[in-house]
């Protein structure tokens, strides 16, 4: 990437990947020692996409930085200089040389970093790799939770050329607090294969728990001076949601912290109870619904709002989540069974949030039914959790039938497609996957070693063989 102003690498920060943490923790020393790396502009994105580390050269290119960023944070030392010291990295690094790291930008502050545009060639390479991997893991449909107008046009061209082997449900997104609905086209079953649909948008309420960016009602238990970040001002968020609803868009909003979830439920409640909104026609979604008050869990069900959750988030975060939240708030966190039980029709769409988590849906299935973390280096080893082999807060486990429905029919319902896909029913499209084991009956450990034998879409084998 010699012609790009900044080079990029995604760096996982999940438990079980400490070797990669050690690489990042010593990168400053590497930059100074390695003549190839020294002085280069480099940016490393945290796995959840809510924070970036940049090299000293990037800071030089950026020049003077603002004192504050609304909905974001520039980590600084006591002298006001940008630094990564004592913030995100100590959470995952055990080595003392993290103090040398420079330049961490959280949430909206990341927009200050000079970011190279992707070429169409590079975009196409990533697309082909992703689709190949998705089909190999049995994904017949994908909900893309943040598609820019440029990316939508890319997918539109692919659809017109008949080059979308699986179904794509795109959520349009523009990083602006001004209404941008005119930039997002309405497309239903578009293209030669009728595999592209665009009828929803993605908004972002707050940051992530790992970087202390999730917006909380009360301060963090392990950082009492901080309540997290609202990335979109409440008035702006409300105005956007109301206008998107009026213009016929399904609205999906990223919410991690209990303050963010409460704020968004207030907005949804106004539309559904005072403005004449019809929940079954609109189907508003809270993406993640990760930390809620117990009252708001009940309110989610009462309103009929869809909580779109990712089971592997629970098992990835369980090593530090209670430290962040304390013993009381954790009761409303990653509460999948509770959310399922209060929802009309018991609808709980389950996803992966890849590439933040693995693309393999069976890992989410395993996490949902066990609340255990597996070791990717030793998949045959028993799963673990802070609460032992019975799983982390096991009362929030899903049954296998509930997890399967969440990944199939419920996900289809969340994208207005339950009449066409989501179950093997006469008259529906022949989208299905053949596995080499019966995940409904095998010992739970065997779920992790289950492989896809064939992926079939529209009755055609697109991966493997029958």
Structure, explained:
By secondary structure, the chain is α/β, with parallel strands linked by helices. It is globular and about 65 Å long. The longest helix is centred in the N-terminal third of the chain and has 17 residues, at 120-136. Strands 6, 7, 8, 9, 10, 11 and 12 form a 7-stranded mixed sheet that branches. A 5-stranded mixed sheet has the order 1-2-3-5-4. The protein has a 3-stranded antiparallel sheet with strand order 13-14-15, with no helix packed on it. Helix 6 packs parallel to helix 7 (258-273) and helix 13 runs antiparallel to helix 14. Helices cover 31% and strands 16% of the residues. The chain has helices spanning 18-25, 27-33, 56-62, 120-136, 149-160, 234-246, 258-273, 279-282, 294-303, 311-317, 321-329, 336-342, 361-370, 400-407, 409-413, 444-447; strands at residues 7-11, 42-46, 51-54, 72-74, 104-107, 141-147, 167-172, 187-190, 196-204, 250-255, 285-288, 306-308, 432-435, 452-457, 460-464.
